[in-house]
Amino acid sequence: MKKRSKWTASALAGGAAGLANGFFGGGGGMVLVPLLTGRCGLDQRRAFATSVAVILPLCMLSAGIYWWKGGLDFVLALPYLLGGFLGGFLGGKLFRGVNMVWLRRAFALLILYGGGKALFF
Amino acid sequence: MIGWLTALLAGMVTGILSGFGVGGGTLLLVYLTAFAGVPQNQAQGINLLYFLPAAAMALPAHYKNGYIHRPTVGPAAAAGLAAAAVAAWIATAMDVQLLHRCFGGFLLIIGMRELFQKEEGQTPEEKTSEEGRR
Asked: pLDDT per residue over A51-108, tens digit each?
């Protein structure tokens, strides 16, 4: 692929992830990873790791805007922050040995459950 | 106290997944809204905060392993920042119940896609991960 079209594909993928990140406060990776493997030609493992690097600054900005508009509860968030800190560290360490396919299948089911509940109940 | 520990554990489990880049944030949102009964807008704020340490802790390992594709990061992050700003602005001004329904629709779409997706972009060293499976 030409350099320019790769740049455009990356920018579009990032833009889509940004919409999800700002609007839903998460889920950017779920949008970004398939676009990186499909449109940008990254292999799966690279796409996952790269998406973490792309989404971190997006989260900072979105969190800043949520905070500014009064939507952040730091006390409520604290245990999740600590958990995320530990989990993120482990995730980085364990990443090389994990089976992606089964991991994603298990998620799909949980996510569908959450989606159904949010939509219909 | 129990609630606090449960929250810590939920953050840690989803944090591992966030470190992988596999949608830990999405899962934490599902946990918060569907199981813990946190309102959608509060849950989104928590999720954004939670991702910061999770990602920051995972990135050094990814970088060291050479998994970060740097030419992609620049344009994707630049466009993403602009889009996130607009979307966050809209979300924080929106009716919480409507936001919750939109989130439900979003989950159904990505859940279906995850379930039925074809495998693409397998890494050559993917075999090692087969062996790493318990």
From this structure: 999 999 999 999 999 999 987 889 999 999 999 889 888 888 887 777 777 777 778 8
- Least Cα separation, residue A13 to chain B (angstroms): 6
Q: Map out the domains of chain A as residue ranges.
A: 3-120
Question: In the structure, how many helices (H) and strands (E) does chain A have?
Answer: 5, 0
Q: What is the DSSP letter of B77?
A: H
Residue A3 to residue B13: CA distance in whole angstroms? 38
Residue A38, chain B, CB below 8 Å: the answer is yes
B chain contacts of residue A1, beta-carbon cutoff 8 Å: none
Residue B115 to residue A91: CA distance in whole angstroms: 22
Please tell me whether the overall predicted TM-score, pTM, comes out greater than 0.90 for this model.
no
- Buried b vs exposed e over B16-30: b needs ≥16 C-beta within 10 Å? bbbbbbbbbbbbbbb
Q: Which amino acid is at A34?
A: P
Could you identify the residue written with the tokens 């999770």?
Answer: B54
Total domains in chain B come to: 1
Instruction: Report the half-sphere exposure of B8 (CA within 13 A, side-chain side).
Output: 8
Amino acid B84 reads: A
Give me the domain span that covers residue B42.
Answer: 2-133
